[in-house]
Amino acid sequence: MKIDHVQLAAPEGGEDAARAYFSQILGLQEETKPAVLQKRGGVWFRGPEIAIHVGIEADFTPQKKAHVALSVSDIEGLAGRLQDAGYPVRWDKALPERRRFYTDDPFGNRLELIASADGFLPQQGRALWQAVDSYFEAKLLQSDRHLEQALESSSTAGLPRWEVSPLQAQFLAVLIKATRTRRVLEVGTLGGYSTIFLARAIPENGTVVTLEVDARHATVAQSNIAAAGLQERVEVIIGAAARSMEQLVESGVEPFDMVFVDADKKSNREYMRLARELVRPGALIITDNVVRGGAVVRDGQSDEDTTGVRNLMDSLHMDATSLSSAIQTVGSKGYDGFAITVVL
Ligand code: SAH
Ligand code: DHB
Ligand code: MG
Fold first, then answer.
1. Alpha-carbon distance 303 to 318, whole Å?
2. Taking 90 as the threshold, does the pLDDT of residue 93 lie above it?
């Protein structure tokens, strides 16, 4: 057995709204209904591997829970088009390996969109970025038992897959070597994956201080860092990062050469302000995840993470005491980017 078509319901007169939604936004083709069925109203749509029939129901109520889940190759693009047209996009991160969100059709029926695992065009978009990342990883990185074990124990402990990609982590290591950085402050530890790269790149007498609010994440990180033999160089501080940074300022801690900001995005501006108090002139401050699939420029995108990125950018705008750039990235983590600031 397999699915022949999916039937959704709409209130009377809903055909044009259905066309605007299923044809123009979702990209399905309208299919002419058989003549004998036309007088009932409604409208049919078809894509390469799916048929959706929208039927008219006299006393219609939207389906709030029951829903169809559509597998799509360009989930980020679709999320953007839906948002631009004023539809909700509720990302669900409960399954870290499946990028997916919920939305509503024009009639309030819930729909789920899931990034297709294989992709309709396998060598395009995300799949191609992934393949290129795999190629560079194979050429430029060494396979490493401690890093693999760190990811495995993070996964066993149920931590989310928010760590930087291996090549991004190695990029941070390159920056450390190029700037002869000795002291690094990391905001957002998770399971310590990025921390291990940072700690390995600094000299033996260097230090990474890493800040984590979630005690469970911090515990996993501490054990991963110890297993990699780096506990002498790393200090994990548990608590809200802004408070920990204030305490570091108050304690007159030795200035840092580099800061990697990778925690709650809503606090990015605050982390930049505090980082500036904790570094020497010439220090680099790198802020992860400033693109977020293009959310930063999308009208109608006003979640606190996106607002946090914009607040950071507003604070850097025309700032004569620092010099910044932002680089968009694609790869195994999808479409995102980082900002890099040097303190003058
Ligand atoms: N740098 C890590 C990934 C960090 S994910 C790596 O690349 O491997 C973001 C982390 O920030 C999560 O562990 C989350 O618990 C933590 N976090 C969120 N809000 C925070 C806060 N207010 N203070 C400190 N850490 C926070
Ligand atoms: C996600 C990615 C990150 O790099 C991060 O710091 C937090 C969340 C994510 O993919 O959701
Ligand atoms: Mg990040």
1. 25
2. no
Q: Residue holding tokens 């395009």? A: 124
Ligand 2 neighbourhood includes 262 CB (under 6 angstroms):
yes
Q: Any idea of the CA torsion for 153, 155, 159, 165, to the nearest 10 degrees?
A: 100
Q: Whose CA is nearest to atom 10 of ligand 2?
A: 162
- How far is ligand 2, taken at its centre, from the CA of residue 163, in Å? 7
Give the model's pLDDT for residue 48: 77
Name the average pLDDT for the chain: 94
Q: How much is the average pLDDT of 140-160?
A: 97
Closest CA to 91 of 78, 83, 100, 79: 100
- What's the pLDDT at 267? 98
> Measuring from atom 4 of ligand 2, which residue has the nearest CA?
162
pLDDT, greater one: 74 or 130: 130
Share of the chain above pLDDT 70, in %: 97
Tokens 């000299």 sit at which residue? Answer: 203
Distance 172 CA to ligand 3 centre (A): 12
Q: What distance in Å separates the CA atoms of residue 111 and residue 69, rounded to the nearest whole number?
A: 6
The minimum-distance atom of ligand 1 relative to the CA of 164 is 7
Q: How many Å lie between the centroid of ligand 2 and the Cα of residue 161?
A: 7
Query: Residues with beta carbon inside 6 Å of ligand 1?
Result: 162-164, 188-190, 193-194, 211-214, 217, 240-241, 262-264
**Dist. CA 270 → ligand 3 center (Å):** 17
Q: Which long-range contacts (CB under 8 A, 24 or more apart) does 20-27 make?
A: 20/106, 21/105, 21/106, 22/52, 22/54, 22/105, 25/78, 25/81, 25/82, 25/85, 25/87, 26/70, 26/78
CA dihedral sign, ordered 291, 294, 295, 299: positive
Q: Which ligand has an atom closest to residue 165 CA?
A: 1
The phi, psi pair for 56, rounded to 5°, reads -90, 135
- Is the minimum distance from the CB of 165 to ligand 2 under 6 angstroms? no
Q: How far is the CA of 17 from the centre of ligand 2 (A)?
A: 35
Phi-psi region of 275 (alpha: psi -120 to 50; beta: other; left: phi over 0): alpha
